[in-house]
Write a structure and sequence with these properties.
This is Phytochrome sensor protein. The chain is an all-beta fold. Helices cover 2% and strands 47% of the residues.
Length: 258
């Protein structure tokens, strides 16, 4: 018996296809790579657009970081309107996020995730033929930002503290985030003696380079086998509120005295 199979994939900004699957692309896109929600505001609007050639049914919800969450299993201090809607080809839809005012930390940002699940409609072709229909799920970060933080978010990356520490059989860069902001990084390198040592491949592309407020994270440098004798510095790239990549350089903290 012929039937349609619907598969859902989790992605950050794009759909992921299994090996040997036919080419496919998410039709519904989110404008922006992140959502900033100032805590003093009652509502933030996120815009979606159906770039595809067919109508799509969209369901949206927020979670606290569990990628396996569903609308019935997660609780956050936000409501979404509308939570389920149909969006026609080449049309836009405003998704309204409202903050309930539930108490949240006032001295640092809080992180949530917005999920947008696009389900393509069934057609006569998919009913009659053995076709695979892909349901694309996109997740983007939502930062709930208090209004009385001591300095702007643009200053946060320069306040990261870097140290070179022994790690396994080599060395790693230890980054400390003393700021009240979540800092998103896309690259971390150590420059020494005219050479560039890059962090090891990240196993978790969703949040391995996200540094929450107060976080301490190690970035392994697999090719660095001895501590540099000369002056070394860190080069790293952060992501701004608008999704732009910003390059930074920072000195290393001096080695701890023995």
């Amino acid at each position: 018996m012929k039937r349609m199979v619907c598969l859902a994939f989790v992605a950050c900004g794009f759909g992921l296809l299994p090996p040997l699957a036919p080419p496919a692309h998410a039709g519904v896109i989110i404008y922006g790579t992140r959502v900033i929600f100032p805590a003093e505001q009652r509502e933030v609007v996120v815009r979606l657009e159906n770039k595809g050639g067919r109508p799509a049914l969209v369901q949206s919800w927020l979670d606290t970081g569990n990628p396996h969450s569903t609308p019935s299993t997660t609780q956050t201090p936000f409501t979404l309107s509308p939570p389920i809607f149909r969006i026609e080809p080449h049309q836009q839809q405003a998704l309204r996020l409202r903050y309930s005012g539930e108490p949240a930390p006032a001295d640092r940002e809080s992180l949530y995730w917005l999920n947008v699940l696009e389900v393509p409609p069934r057609t006569a072709n998919t009913e009659q033929n053995n076709q695979i229909e892909l349901a694309f799920r996109t997740r983007v970060r939502v930062f709930l930002r208090p209004d009385a933080l001591p300095y702007p978010v643009s200053s946060a990356p320069s306040k990261l503290q870097w140290a070179l520490v022994a790690h396994e059989q080599g060395y790693a860069l230890q980054a400390t985030n003393p700021t009240p902001y979540h800092i998103s990084l896309t690259s971390v390198d150590l420059l020494s003696g005219g050479k560039r040592f890059s962090k090891a491949a990240n196993k978790d592309a969703n949040d391995g380079l996200l540094m929450p407020a107060g976080d301490i994270k190690l970035f392994a440098l697999p090719l660095l086998r001895s501590r540099p004798n000369d002056v070394a510095e860190v080069e790293f790239t952060s992501v701004s509120d608008f999704g732009a990549r910003v390059r930074h350089s920072a000195p290393l903290a001096p080695p701890a005295a023995r």
